[in-house]
Amino acid sequence: MSKVLRIVLFAALALGAAPLTADARLRARAKTVTACSWWGNGCYTAPVRKAPMTHKMRLKGGTWIDCNGDCKQALREQTVDFWETQSEKALAIH
Q: Among 4, 54, 66, 71, which is most buried by a count of CB atoms within 10 Å?
């Protein structure tokens, strides 16, 4: 293969497969979950990360909590429908 052809091929590969910036790599790896309220309180999206035995998600204040098997359900109960969930739990006790 001639030197010119190698340079052209290298340039084509370099332009077609430009390396991602650190920010783009982080966004590509980031996993998220979105939960919407059952009572019209809006939606919330949280980042999710893999933990040794489960997955964890970050709440608005920065606290990471376990997903308990269903990240979407847990996120809804802990954020947008927090007070409704507390009310349901209180009624279940009586």
A: 71
DSSP state, residue 18: P
Q: For the segment 47-69, what is each residue's pLDDT rounded down to a tens digit?
A: 999 999 889 999 989 999 999 88
Q: What are the extents of the domains in the chain?
A: 28-93
Angle at 80 between CA 44 and CA 39, to 5 degrees: 120
Low-confidence ranges of the chain (pLDDT < 70): 1-30, 94
Alpha-carbon distance of 43 to 35, in angstroms, equals 6
CA angle centred on 24, ends 20 and 78, rounded to 5°? 155
Residue written as token pair 């429908």:
81
Which amino acid type is present at position 75? L
How far lies 21's CA from each of 17, 18, 24, 25, 30, in Å?
A: 12, 9, 5, 6, 14
